[in-house]
Amino acid sequence: MSTLILGIESSCDDTSAAVLSDGQVLSNVTASQAVHLRYGGVVPELASRAHEQNIIPVVDKALGDAGISADDLSAVAFTRGPGLMGSLLVGVSFAKGFALALGKPIIEVNHLQAHVSAHFIVEEGKERPKFPFLCLLVSGGNSQILLVKDYMDMEIIGQTIDDAAGEAFDKCAKVMGLGYPGGPVINKLANEGDPKAFTFAKPHIAGYDYSFSGLKTSFLYTLRDELKKDPNFIEKNKADLCASLQATVIDILMKNLTRAAKDLGITTVAVAGGVSANSGLRDAFERLHTSRGWDVFVPKFSYTTDNAAMVASAGYRKFEKGIFADMDAAPFSRTVI
Ligand code: KG4
Questions:
Q1: Residue 328 alpha carbon to ligand 1 centre in Å
Q2: Sign of the Cα pseudo-torsion (79, 84, 87, 92, in order)
Protein backbone atom coordinates (compact mmCIF):
# COMPACT_ATOMS: atom_id res chain seq x y z
CA MET A 1 0.00 0.00 0.00
CA SER A 2 1.28 3.49 -0.84
CA THR A 3 2.16 6.02 1.83
CA LEU A 4 0.05 9.12 1.24
CA ILE A 5 1.23 12.27 3.03
CA LEU A 6 -0.68 15.55 3.12
CA GLY A 7 1.76 18.45 3.62
CA ILE A 8 0.70 21.85 4.93
CA GLU A 9 2.83 25.00 4.69
CA SER A 10 1.84 28.34 6.23
CA SER A 11 5.06 29.80 7.66
CA CYS A 12 4.96 33.15 5.84
CA ASP A 13 2.67 34.46 3.10
CA ASP A 14 1.97 31.31 1.04
CA THR A 15 -0.83 28.93 2.01
CA SER A 16 0.09 25.61 0.47
CA ALA A 17 -1.08 21.99 0.60
CA ALA A 18 0.34 18.99 -1.26
CA VAL A 19 -0.19 15.24 -1.46
CA LEU A 20 2.74 12.89 -2.00
CA SER A 21 2.46 9.16 -2.69
CA ASP A 22 5.64 7.28 -1.65
CA GLY A 23 7.53 10.57 -2.02
CA GLN A 24 6.09 11.39 -5.48
CA VAL A 25 4.04 14.56 -5.92
CA LEU A 26 0.36 13.96 -6.75
CA SER A 27 -0.66 17.58 -6.13
CA ASN A 28 0.88 20.84 -4.92
CA VAL A 29 -1.49 23.79 -4.51
CA THR A 30 -0.41 27.24 -3.33
CA ALA A 31 -2.42 30.40 -2.68
CA SER A 32 -0.10 33.41 -2.63
CA GLN A 33 -1.20 36.57 -0.87
CA ALA A 34 -1.36 39.63 -3.12
CA VAL A 35 -2.56 41.71 -0.16
CA HIS A 36 1.06 42.47 0.86
CA LEU A 37 2.13 44.01 -2.47
CA ARG A 38 0.97 47.51 -1.64
CA TYR A 39 2.90 47.51 1.67
CA GLY A 40 6.29 46.57 0.18
CA GLY A 41 6.65 43.55 2.49
CA VAL A 42 4.70 40.89 4.38
CA VAL A 43 2.30 42.27 7.03
CA PRO A 44 2.06 39.46 9.63
CA GLU A 45 -1.49 40.22 10.76
CA LEU A 46 -2.80 40.24 7.19
CA ALA A 47 -0.88 37.05 6.42
CA SER A 48 -2.60 35.18 9.28
CA ARG A 49 -6.03 36.32 8.15
CA ALA A 50 -5.36 35.28 4.55
CA HIS A 51 -4.14 31.84 5.69
CA GLU A 52 -7.37 31.43 7.64
CA GLN A 53 -9.37 32.20 4.48
CA ASN A 54 -7.22 30.04 2.17
CA ILE A 55 -6.41 26.93 4.15
CA ILE A 56 -9.60 24.89 3.66
CA PRO A 57 -10.01 25.59 -0.09
CA VAL A 58 -6.30 24.90 -0.68
CA VAL A 59 -6.37 21.55 1.17
CA ASP A 60 -9.61 20.64 -0.57
CA LYS A 61 -8.07 21.33 -3.99
CA ALA A 62 -4.86 19.43 -3.12
CA LEU A 63 -6.89 16.33 -2.20
CA GLY A 64 -9.08 16.74 -5.31
CA ASP A 65 -6.08 17.20 -7.66
CA ALA A 66 -4.47 14.11 -6.13
CA GLY A 67 -7.67 12.18 -6.72
CA ILE A 68 -7.84 10.86 -3.16
CA SER A 69 -10.13 11.31 -0.20
CA ALA A 70 -8.94 12.47 3.21
CA ASP A 71 -9.56 8.97 4.60
CA ASP A 72 -6.88 7.56 2.27
CA LEU A 73 -4.13 9.64 3.93
CA SER A 74 -1.40 7.94 5.95
CA ALA A 75 -0.47 11.09 7.91
CA VAL A 76 -0.64 14.89 7.96
CA ALA A 77 2.70 16.77 7.94
CA PHE A 78 2.86 20.46 8.79
CA THR A 79 5.45 23.23 9.10
CA ARG A 80 5.95 23.84 12.80
CA GLY A 81 8.51 26.67 12.34
CA PRO A 82 10.46 28.82 11.97
CA GLY A 83 8.20 31.53 10.55
CA LEU A 84 5.60 34.11 11.49
CA MET A 85 3.80 32.98 14.64
CA GLY A 86 0.27 33.96 13.54
CA SER A 87 0.76 32.33 10.13
CA LEU A 88 2.14 29.12 11.62
CA LEU A 89 -0.72 28.90 14.12
CA VAL A 90 -3.23 28.60 11.28
CA GLY A 91 -1.43 25.69 9.56
CA VAL A 92 -0.49 23.89 12.78
CA SER A 93 -3.99 24.16 14.27
CA PHE A 94 -5.62 23.09 11.02
CA ALA A 95 -3.29 20.08 10.66
CA LYS A 96 -3.99 18.93 14.22
CA GLY A 97 -7.76 19.32 13.96
CA PHE A 98 -7.90 17.66 10.53
CA ALA A 99 -5.73 14.71 11.60
CA LEU A 100 -7.60 14.29 14.87
CA ALA A 101 -10.95 14.17 13.08
CA LEU A 102 -9.57 11.55 10.64
CA GLY A 103 -7.75 9.54 13.30
CA LYS A 104 -4.41 9.99 11.46
CA PRO A 105 -0.95 10.69 12.92
CA ILE A 106 0.71 14.11 12.59
CA ILE A 107 4.30 14.89 11.61
CA GLU A 108 6.02 18.19 12.42
CA VAL A 109 8.46 19.58 9.88
CA ASN A 110 11.16 22.22 10.23
CA HIS A 111 10.69 24.75 7.43
CA LEU A 112 14.41 24.91 6.64
CA GLN A 113 14.74 21.13 6.45
CA ALA A 114 11.67 21.18 4.21
CA HIS A 115 13.45 23.44 1.70
CA VAL A 116 16.33 20.94 1.54
CA SER A 117 13.80 18.07 1.31
CA ALA A 118 12.58 19.47 -2.03
CA HIS A 119 15.62 17.54 -3.33
CA PHE A 120 14.26 14.29 -1.88
CA ILE A 121 11.02 14.42 -3.90
CA VAL A 122 10.81 11.21 -5.92
CA GLU A 123 10.56 11.70 -9.68
CA GLU A 124 10.90 9.01 -12.29
CA GLY A 125 14.25 9.21 -14.06
CA LYS A 126 15.52 11.94 -11.75
CA GLU A 127 18.52 11.40 -9.51
CA ARG A 128 18.58 12.66 -5.93
CA PRO A 129 21.71 13.95 -4.15
CA LYS A 130 23.79 11.33 -2.36
CA PHE A 131 24.80 11.92 1.26
CA PRO A 132 26.77 13.76 2.43
CA PHE A 133 26.21 16.89 0.38
CA LEU A 134 26.24 20.63 0.94
CA CYS A 135 23.06 22.64 0.47
CA LEU A 136 23.02 26.40 0.05
CA LEU A 137 19.71 27.48 1.55
CA VAL A 138 18.88 31.02 0.45
CA SER A 139 15.52 32.68 1.07
CA GLY A 140 14.03 35.92 2.33
CA GLY A 141 14.74 34.94 5.93
CA ASN A 142 17.78 32.67 5.72
CA SER A 143 21.17 32.25 4.10
CA GLN A 144 22.89 29.11 5.27
CA ILE A 145 25.26 26.39 4.20
CA LEU A 146 24.04 23.04 5.47
CA LEU A 147 26.03 19.85 5.65
CA VAL A 148 23.34 17.26 4.85
CA LYS A 149 24.35 13.88 6.28
CA ASP A 150 20.97 12.15 6.02
CA TYR A 151 17.28 12.97 5.39
CA MET A 152 16.91 14.41 8.88
CA ASP A 153 20.52 14.96 9.87
CA MET A 154 21.58 18.44 8.80
CA GLU A 155 24.25 20.66 10.33
CA ILE A 156 24.51 24.40 9.77
CA ILE A 157 28.17 25.09 8.98
CA GLY A 158 27.70 28.72 7.91
CA GLN A 159 24.92 31.29 8.09
CA THR A 160 24.27 34.98 7.77
CA ILE A 161 25.17 37.09 10.76
CA ASP A 162 22.73 39.84 9.66
CA ASP A 163 20.50 40.04 6.55
CA ALA A 164 19.56 37.10 4.33
CA ALA A 165 20.38 37.13 0.60
CA GLY A 166 16.70 37.49 -0.35
CA GLU A 167 16.34 40.34 2.12
CA ALA A 168 19.28 42.13 0.44
CA PHE A 169 17.50 41.80 -2.94
CA ASP A 170 14.19 42.93 -1.45
CA LYS A 171 15.63 45.97 0.36
CA CYS A 172 17.76 47.15 -2.58
CA ALA A 173 14.74 46.74 -4.88
CA LYS A 174 12.66 48.82 -2.48
CA VAL A 175 15.07 51.78 -2.56
CA MET A 176 15.03 51.63 -6.36
CA GLY A 177 11.21 51.68 -6.28
CA LEU A 178 10.92 48.22 -7.86
CA GLY A 179 8.25 46.81 -5.53
CA TYR A 180 8.05 43.62 -3.48
CA PRO A 181 9.34 40.94 -3.65
CA GLY A 182 12.44 42.46 -5.20
CA GLY A 183 14.36 39.31 -6.14
CA PRO A 184 12.39 38.37 -9.28
CA VAL A 185 12.38 41.97 -10.63
CA ILE A 186 16.10 42.40 -10.01
CA ASN A 187 16.71 39.06 -11.72
CA LYS A 188 14.73 40.15 -14.79
CA LEU A 189 16.45 43.54 -15.09
CA ALA A 190 19.87 42.00 -14.38
CA ASN A 191 19.56 39.93 -17.55
CA GLU A 192 19.74 43.18 -19.56
CA GLY A 193 22.53 44.87 -17.56
CA ASP A 194 26.32 44.84 -17.15
CA PRO A 195 27.38 42.93 -14.00
CA LYS A 196 30.69 44.81 -13.95
CA ALA A 197 29.21 48.32 -14.20
CA PHE A 198 29.30 48.97 -10.43
CA THR A 199 31.37 47.61 -7.55
CA PHE A 200 29.79 47.05 -4.16
CA ALA A 201 31.27 46.01 -0.81
CA LYS A 202 31.86 42.33 -0.06
CA PRO A 203 32.21 41.01 3.51
CA HIS A 204 35.42 39.62 5.04
CA ILE A 205 34.32 37.09 7.62
CA ALA A 206 36.20 34.11 8.99
CA GLY A 207 34.67 30.65 8.47
CA TYR A 208 31.68 30.06 6.22
CA ASP A 209 29.32 32.71 7.62
CA TYR A 210 27.66 35.31 5.43
CA SER A 211 26.88 39.01 5.83
CA PHE A 212 24.81 41.18 3.50
CA SER A 213 24.37 44.37 5.53
CA GLY A 214 27.64 45.91 4.21
CA LEU A 215 26.55 45.26 0.62
CA LYS A 216 23.17 46.84 1.32
CA THR A 217 24.78 49.96 2.82
CA SER A 218 27.28 50.20 -0.02
CA PHE A 219 24.41 49.96 -2.54
CA LEU A 220 22.48 52.69 -0.68
CA TYR A 221 25.53 55.00 -0.54
CA THR A 222 26.16 54.57 -4.27
CA LEU A 223 22.57 55.61 -5.00
CA ARG A 224 22.73 58.54 -2.55
CA ASP A 225 26.00 59.90 -4.04
CA GLU A 226 24.98 59.43 -7.66
CA LEU A 227 21.48 60.86 -7.17
CA LYS A 228 23.09 64.10 -5.96
CA LYS A 229 24.79 64.42 -9.34
CA ASP A 230 21.88 63.15 -11.44
CA PRO A 231 18.29 62.82 -10.12
CA ASN A 232 17.54 60.31 -12.91
CA PHE A 233 20.48 58.09 -12.02
CA ILE A 234 18.37 55.08 -10.97
CA GLU A 235 16.12 55.23 -14.02
CA LYS A 236 19.10 55.48 -16.39
CA ASN A 237 21.15 52.73 -14.71
CA LYS A 238 18.51 50.32 -13.41
CA ALA A 239 19.62 47.28 -15.41
CA ASP A 240 23.33 47.80 -14.64
CA LEU A 241 22.59 48.36 -10.93
CA CYS A 242 20.57 45.14 -10.78
CA ALA A 243 23.15 43.13 -12.73
CA SER A 244 26.01 44.37 -10.53
CA LEU A 245 24.05 43.76 -7.32
CA GLN A 246 23.03 40.26 -8.41
CA ALA A 247 26.60 39.39 -9.46
CA THR A 248 27.93 40.55 -6.07
CA VAL A 249 25.35 38.50 -4.11
CA ILE A 250 26.13 35.39 -6.20
CA ASP A 251 29.87 35.89 -5.79
CA ILE A 252 29.50 36.15 -1.99
CA LEU A 253 27.28 33.04 -1.84
CA MET A 254 29.39 30.85 -4.11
CA LYS A 255 32.79 31.74 -2.57
CA ASN A 256 31.94 30.31 0.86
CA LEU A 257 30.08 27.34 -0.57
CA THR A 258 32.94 26.25 -2.82
CA ARG A 259 35.51 26.84 -0.05
CA ALA A 260 33.46 24.73 2.38
CA ALA A 261 33.09 21.97 -0.22
CA LYS A 262 36.82 21.93 -0.90
CA ASP A 263 37.70 21.96 2.83
CA LEU A 264 35.33 19.07 3.54
CA GLY A 265 36.18 17.13 0.39
CA ILE A 266 32.54 17.17 -0.77
CA THR A 267 31.69 17.27 -4.48
CA THR A 268 27.89 17.14 -4.33
CA VAL A 269 26.18 20.51 -3.88
CA ALA A 270 22.56 21.66 -3.95
CA VAL A 271 20.71 24.95 -3.70
CA ALA A 272 17.27 25.57 -2.16
CA GLY A 273 14.93 28.39 -1.03
CA GLY A 274 13.27 31.31 -2.80
CA VAL A 275 16.53 32.83 -4.07
CA SER A 276 17.38 29.54 -5.82
CA ALA A 277 14.90 30.73 -8.48
CA ASN A 278 17.54 33.29 -9.48
CA SER A 279 18.81 32.47 -12.98
CA GLY A 280 22.31 33.84 -12.30
CA LEU A 281 22.64 31.66 -9.19
CA ARG A 282 21.32 28.61 -11.04
CA ASP A 283 23.89 29.24 -13.81
CA ALA A 284 26.65 29.54 -11.20
CA PHE A 285 25.68 26.08 -9.88
CA GLU A 286 25.59 24.60 -13.38
CA ARG A 287 29.11 25.99 -13.93
CA LEU A 288 30.31 24.01 -10.89
CA HIS A 289 29.25 20.92 -12.81
CA THR A 290 30.80 21.89 -16.13
CA SER A 291 34.06 23.35 -14.77
CA ARG A 292 34.71 21.08 -11.75
CA GLY A 293 32.63 18.01 -12.52
CA TRP A 294 30.72 18.29 -9.24
CA ASP A 295 27.25 16.77 -8.89
CA VAL A 296 24.90 19.73 -8.82
CA PHE A 297 21.22 19.81 -7.78
CA VAL A 298 19.04 22.79 -8.63
CA PRO A 299 15.33 22.54 -7.71
CA LYS A 300 12.39 22.87 -10.09
CA PHE A 301 11.05 26.45 -10.04
CA SER A 302 7.83 25.29 -8.35
CA TYR A 303 9.84 23.96 -5.40
CA THR A 304 12.03 27.06 -4.87
CA THR A 305 9.63 29.39 -3.04
CA ASP A 306 7.52 28.20 -0.10
CA ASN A 307 5.41 25.16 -1.04
CA ALA A 308 3.86 22.17 0.69
CA ALA A 309 5.39 19.50 -1.58
CA MET A 310 8.71 20.01 0.20
CA VAL A 311 6.93 19.79 3.59
CA ALA A 312 5.24 16.53 2.60
CA SER A 313 8.59 15.25 1.27
CA ALA A 314 10.25 15.85 4.68
CA GLY A 315 7.14 14.36 6.33
CA TYR A 316 7.41 11.22 4.19
CA ARG A 317 10.99 10.60 5.36
CA LYS A 318 9.89 10.96 8.99
CA PHE A 319 6.90 8.67 8.41
CA GLU A 320 9.26 6.00 7.05
CA LYS A 321 11.20 6.16 10.33
CA GLY A 322 8.03 6.24 12.46
CA ILE A 323 8.71 9.73 13.81
CA PHE A 324 5.41 11.42 14.73
CA ALA A 325 4.49 14.56 16.67
CA ASP A 326 2.32 14.88 19.75
CA MET A 327 -0.90 16.87 19.76
CA ASP A 328 0.72 19.46 22.06
CA ALA A 329 3.31 20.45 19.39
CA ALA A 330 3.21 24.27 19.31
CA PRO A 331 4.64 26.45 16.52
CA PHE A 332 7.97 28.21 17.00
CA SER A 333 9.12 31.39 15.28
CA ARG A 334 12.90 30.90 15.46
CA THR A 335 15.11 27.87 15.57
CA VAL A 336 18.33 26.19 14.58
CA ILE A 337 18.19 22.87 12.74
O1 KG4 B 1 11.75 30.86 0.32
P2 KG4 B 1 10.91 32.06 0.11
O3 KG4 B 1 9.72 31.93 -0.80
O4 KG4 B 1 10.33 32.64 1.44
C5 KG4 B 1 11.05 32.72 2.63
O6 KG4 B 1 11.78 33.70 2.78
O7 KG4 B 1 10.89 31.76 3.44
O8 KG4 B 1 11.89 33.21 -0.44
C9 KG4 B 1 11.45 34.49 -0.76
C10 KG4 B 1 12.67 35.29 -1.22
C11 KG4 B 1 12.37 36.78 -1.41
O12 KG4 B 1 13.36 37.51 -0.74
C13 KG4 B 1 12.46 36.96 -2.93
O14 KG4 B 1 12.88 38.24 -3.31
C15 KG4 B 1 13.48 35.91 -3.29
O16 KG4 B 1 13.15 34.80 -2.47
N17 KG4 B 1 13.42 35.54 -4.72
C18 KG4 B 1 14.40 35.78 -5.60
C19 KG4 B 1 13.95 35.33 -6.85
N20 KG4 B 1 12.69 34.81 -6.69
C21 KG4 B 1 12.39 34.94 -5.37
N22 KG4 B 1 15.61 36.35 -5.43
C23 KG4 B 1 16.39 36.48 -6.51
N24 KG4 B 1 16.03 36.09 -7.74
C25 KG4 B 1 14.83 35.51 -7.97
N26 KG4 B 1 14.48 35.12 -9.20
A1: 32
A2: positive
